[in-house]
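so i finally got all the pieces together for this one. its two components total, 1428 residues if u count the protein bits. some of the lines might not be protein, just check the labels. i wanna see the whole assembly predicted at once instead of chain by chain like last time, that was a mess tbh
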Amino acid sequence: MRKAILKLKDGKEFEGIAFGSEKDIPIGELVFNTGIPGYQEILTDPSYAGQIVMLTSPMIGNYGTDAADNESDSIKASALVVRKLYRGPIMKGRVSLDDFLKKHAVRGIEGIDTRALTLHIREHGSQNAVIFFPEEREEAERLIETFPSITERDLIDGVSVKKAVYNPDLGEGFEKAPENPLKHIVMVDYGIKRSIIENFYKLGASVTLLPHTANADMVMKEKPSALFLSNGPGDPALLHDAVNLVKSLIGKLPIEGICLGHQIITIAIGGKTEKMKFGHHGSNHPVRDEITGKTFVTAQNHGFMTVASSLPPTTSIWFTNANDGTVEGLFDETLNVRSVQFHPEAAPGPEDGRWIFRTFMEKAE
Amino acid sequence: MRRDDIHHILVIGSGPIVIGQACEFDYSGNQAVQALKEEGYEVSLINPNPATVMTTPGLADHIFLEPLRKEYIERIFDQVGPDAILSTMGGQTALNLTMELEKEGLLKKYGVKVIGASAEAIERAEDRGKFKDIITSLGYESARSGIAHTLEEAERIAEEIPFPLIIRPSFTLGGMGGSIANDRDEFRTLALRALDMSPASEILIEESLIGWREFEMEVMRDRKDNAIIVCSIENVDPMGVHTGDSITIAPIQTLSDSEYQKMRNASIEILRAVGVDCGGSNVQFAISPDHSRMIVIEMNPRVSRSSALASKATGFPIARISAKLAVGYTLDEVQNEITGASVSCFEPALDYVAVKVPRFELEKFPLEASALGTQMRSVGEALALGRTALEAINKAFRASEQKLDGITALDKNRYDTSLLLRSAHPLRYLAAYTAIKDGEKDLEKLSAITGFDIYFLSLLQEQKEIEEKLESGNLTDDVYIEAKKAGLTDRYIERLSGKKPPLKMIPARHYVDTCAGEFAALTPYCYTSYGEEDEGKGIGKDGVIIVASGPNRIGQGLEFDTCCTLSSKAFRKHGRKTIMINSNPETVSTDYNTSDRLYISPLTAEDVLSIMKKEGTSDVVVQLGGQTPLNMAAELEKNGAHIVGTSLESIDMTEDRGLFSSLVKELGLRQPDNRSASSVSEIKAMAHEIGFPVLLRPSFVLGGRAMFIAYDDNGLEEFIKKPEVAISEDSPVLVDQFLEDAFEYDLDAVSDGKSVYIGGILQHIEAAGIHSGDSAAVFPPYKSKPEILEEMRKWTLALARRLNVRGLMNIQFAEKDGKLYIIEVNPRASRTVPFISKSSGTDLVETAVRVWLGEDLVQQGLVKEEGGIGEGKCITGWAIKEAVFSFDRFPHIDPALGPEMKSTGEVVGYGRTFGEAYAKSQAAAHNKLPSKGRVIISVNSKDRKTIVPIAKALEELGFHILATKGTARDLFEAGILADVVLKTQDGHPNIVDYIRERKADLIINTPMGFHSRQSDDDIRTEALRAHIPYTTTTSAASAAVEAIRYIQENRFIVRELPDKKHR
């Protein structure tokens, strides 16, 4: 058991015990997620690139990890912070969380008073943090002083595909692409989760994944039924190319998006996004469907949001967060765009919003 | 949106506390009544349980403490005219009653709508065949099974599914009558019994899933199809143990998100298909050990014990919100009151672990090694919250008040641990710990033997490592902190390490906020944990701590929780801030809005003291929660607590036999002759000095356990041989004069040290020697001379003044041959305080609180002048309290009554006449007094005279009289012709045969003394099994006669509880 330290940019420090990899000091924006199960999906979700994830659920690692629960090919979060890591035996065929982190060269720290840390972030907002061994203190403190904030970091390049991929194989435990696709969805990959692609597969779509650098010609060449903008890490306001891509394609085909994709659409249609104090990260957020009046529970993971008042008059709010009233989805029939801020693919979290994919498919041409 | 098509709602309570239906329904009913009142509805309530908070005057508009039977409900429909009935708050009892009202057409006749769950939805969820079809149609799996209405049908099904088989009767509460058959012979017996128990003669026979993992989802759904999971619960015990008897943990610990979501989706789809669209339900699942199969076990379309647990584990008030949904609101319209910042259409996120440990009465109701099964056996439960699973488990074991500091290895001299490992036994988890502590390293093997998931065994491994560090004796700060974080007490740490803790740690206060810290919590629901940052500030000197009563057990249950709840309300009403500490998740006292601050915490001196320090107050109330708080009072005071009310010194004087005897002498009062013997020969000598019969009990045993009445030397021998009796200088045996055939009384009073206010005097109906908690009792006394009552009052005042009683006191008296004796004095709230408060119209708890706040009884207007006596009157005419038992859960246990308390609950019967009150008390207790038929009389020689008018009356009422030989002869001499039946020892057919063949409708059998005790016991046991009313005293028999008169009139009178204060 090796002691390690978690330090926040504002100076707050916690001492804990290291697990996972011992390589490289992790640094990134510290965010909390209030979901209970689902640590593996969270760690492998590319939206968490550049972020240190702290889980409020105190007992982590209980059921190990399973290849079928990976949302990408590796751990994308910079590090993991937990109250208590389970180090005991697990079911045959699974890999312990400790080993999983080691394999992906990611550091973890346990024994942290995650409750105090959560309340601190709630009070002071998300900020950069660093995890280090005592002998690394000097280096770590230097790092955190100079490290850019999440709003200044371009994280997409690290998680996007490098070239176009047709019907990507999602790996063990996931559905394969349909043999006789009904529609063809072209997706720009800002760090897409496997479950999003799988949901389209399940509904009979074929998928082409394009790198985030894709331009309008590359999109149109694929003869898409719709353009889909994926989830991903970081500040949407930095993604000028993505916004320009969408602007250039609006009206030419249906455009859909989830999470970061929703934020890109927001900006492209003339709206604004802003950073939230500590964001929505969890599996229990109620969202109201403004068309039907129904409320359902969703998985969420975003630190930026659409500013409702900034939206053009033709745009309608599709979903609203029932707790804080923030925008959770929009549609604009005149522009043929629709997007959601939450994660209908869940993974992890409640699957009550999965029907959104049906709407996305129906609206694809 | 609020429903405007209904205006007046009848809430059905669950009646007396029995195993499987306890305080949780007082909690849910209470929340429901409050929620409906808030919405401006007129609310009526029926519940014959006087110990409940929900029946407190001023809560509902019309309160009926009447039997939960359709005839009485029909009268309520007629009399106060509700237009809706809320069926989901009173457990299986309320659900079944609603179904009955529906089937009888009474709802239609009176234009009453069912809200909460429709009759159709109840039917679909409860009818096992229909439910199974739903599961199959949704594409989920049920256990392989079949439904039978006859033994033949049952046997046909048993041929198709391999043994062992589970047999469950339909429509019973708490899985009652369920059993496991291992072979064909067992199957036949058990199937017959189950068919008999089901009100619909319907049983389900299914494949055994024993050893599988068990899970439960608490779901809410509204009419807009919004659905949420409030809480997921995992049973630590595997399938095969009733969930009420299982150690459980929330949230689910061992499922991955994909497995969890599958279960979540299934739960919501099931609610949708069953049609639950305005309330809460739970759905139970089993998962095979390799996680390859998920089976839906069952659902309850109502608020349940587990929803009370889920409410307390998450902070989400399920019953309250269910009530709102029942009257038309949707989840997104209801605010989450804990955060105030979110709506109720969300799923609580927990950043702690909640563990429930059931509490059994292993000493009163011993269990065979494999006794746990599909039928619930535990009497209560304790909840603990911790930041880690191990911490919560250790706290929960401690909180269960079963003499465990936490997870501890079992004494192998006392227990066969290898047998326990293989048995569905309450101690199995500790047996697994014992094995691990002994060096078992193969957790997979242990998991296969015990059925515990490897995760839960691994926690035990962690406990072992901590214990070993402590046992090494090197108690460093780090080791100490690690042990505290794991939930160990200072006492246990000291015991293992042999050292005093190196530092004093005060735990951190954490809030239960439903959102894992995402929003600021408004409602102060707290727990403590070590080694973390503190949240919030202490309440300070304004605060008063109320130590509640912990898990339900026999002798300490709902009554005390009600006292604690009422005191909190009274303190708050009079300007003090209250801090409630309790571990019982079923209760109203652990509701988030009962007190200014609530701690879910084990009730030990260490825990209470740490909270006291955190809150910055020293005022602690210990006289309302029964024995639990009193037992820690001395240690609290030693460590700086100020005990509110009567001083510890006075409490001591009443509890210490020697001091109490001197006090009785000093005041010139009388008590039964009593000695203390420290050897076998002393017992004999003293028994002869005092004169038989004598009451014997080991001095160190509380609650009447191992108490014994000896009529002669043989009896003494029998007592001495009892395994729990060890006689020595250190543990003497108490030898008391036993007042046979005495009348017994209970008196509840409040004193300010100068005057005394007597709430009321209760006279017992059963024979002396039966624990006061087990006997029927009447308020006001019905067979007493005024001089005796006057003497009681004087003695009460004398005791109250001498002891300087400030607050509540309870005195038990006995009267024999015109002489009054004091049996015991308890300077605390008693079980009968809520009953007396309701029946007299004066809240004794509030009276006591006002005394504590400095307002004496004269100022309160209850006593005319200082040094005087005030007394309450029964405001309902007659009030009769009847005890209710759960013996049918323990078929192998002799249901004999004696000095040791065995009842689990109580009911009241109110009436203008004694007969009406007694009839109602019996109806409410489900003792079916007959209106015609056969009565068997067998009385001892002393009762032969008094029985004559009773027999005569029964004859006049049209009963056919049967009697044993001696009784028949005496009756004949008095002109009553009785058919002779044989005593059990005299051949066949005898009394027992008559009972077994249901050829008797009422049995009057007074004790024949030591020699015929076996036969008396047989009669009583069989009568209980056959549900035939059975009385052991002539006074109870004459009460029964008056009641039968009322029943024959066939009038079902309902009376609203008068509300003295509120109108």
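The longest strand of chain B covers residues 806-816.
Chain B touches chain A through 59 residues (CB under 8 Å).
anyway lmk what u think
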